[in-house]
Design goal:
This protein is mainly alpha-helical. The chain contains 13 helices and three strands. A three-stranded antiparallel sheet has the order 1-2-3, with no helix packed on it.
Length: 293
């Protein structure tokens, strides 16, 4: 079993160039499935479609959400696709399993005023304040994922050109920066970052107060701190600014293809969710404002 899982991990990291989060979640799903099969004394290479269907049903009976079950099935399809390519199995037992029906929720976004309030929270009175302002401005300016944000190196910025180079999932994309973000980043890079980094060889754009690359956990705490400070009742996550970036661009006339390119979506269907969000907002306004609605 360990040989199969090691081969799959290598497949995700090196062939698929999946993000660290994807690797972690897919491996976790497969480990859980492997444990379930071990409990039934079924070898992973001998699994049939019925085994996968029974496992998916057991997850539902244990109260797992449709989204969780769907992701687990997707993980198993990926796992067995890998095993087929490596010659461990000759068929994919998860291929014929229908995913659970998932009601796709519209993403929560902030209004323009809420974004403005949120971005104003870091006070530029100390090193941390300047750093945090630069991070939040960059996140809203570009709509990049938090995993991409913390992986940025200082050379990924071209401030004179007003653009950011972001490399993820084997693709590079160039994203413009608005002037306020450029100013915040200039202040951070020229005056603050040199005081935070301990090693001259540090390449990370954003570092913690110990001079090391910012972590996901550290950035999550930062987001929650400023949400509370701003008094915004919506549940803000690092992804909220990404959703807000896309929705606000669409509201102001940007086309879906351009937004897709900036977000780094492989499929336009992932970007179309923001059209549904805008349409729902229009319907809500109509119902509240039309005298006969």
């Amino acid at each position: 079993m360990s040989e199969l899982l090691t081969a799959y991990e290598d497949f995700l990291k090196n062939e698929k160039q999946a993000s660290a989060n994807t690797v972690s979640s897919y491996l976790r799903d497969v480990h859980q499935f492997a444990a379930a099969m071990d409990g039934r004394d079924v070898d992973l290479t001998q699994v049939v479609t019925r085994d996968v269907e029974d496992y998916a049903n057991s997850l539902m009976k244990r109260g797992k959400s449709p989204a969780t079950v769907t992701r687990s099935v997707a993980s198993l399809k990926s796992f067995y696709s890998c095993l087929m390519s490596k010659g461990f199995v000759n068929r994919n037992p998860a291929k014929g399993v229908s995913p659970a029906k998932v009601e796709r929720k519209l993403p929560q976004v902030l209004t323009s005023k809420e974004v403005e309030l949120f971005l104003e929270q870091p006070e530029c009175t100390d090193l941390k304040g300047y750093r945090d302002r630069a991070m939040l401005e960059l996140l809203y300016a570009t709509g990049i994922r938090v995993s991409e944000l913390i992986e940025l190196d200082i050379d990924d910025l071209n401030l004179p050109g007003g653009v950011l180079k972001c490399f993820s999932k084997g693709r590079e994309r160039i994203i413009p920066l608005y002037s306020t973000a450029v100013r915040a980043l200039n202040e951070y890079i020229n005056s603050v970052r040199p005081q935070l980094v301990e090693s001259p060889n540090e390449t990370a754009l954003f570092v913690n107060m110990s001079g090391e690359r910012m972590s996901r956990q550290g950035f999550w705490k930062l987001i929650k701190y400023y949400q509370e400070k701003a008094g915004i009742q919506k549940d803000i996550t690092p992804h909220t600014l990404r959703h807000s970036f896309a929705a606000h661009l669409l509201e102001n006339g940007a086309d879906l293809r351009s937004i897709q390119e900036m977000l780094g979506h492989a499929d336009i269907s992932s970007t179309q969710i923001y059209s549904k969000l805008i349409n729902q907002k229009i319907k809500d306004v109509y119902k509240k404002a039309h005298p006969r609605a």
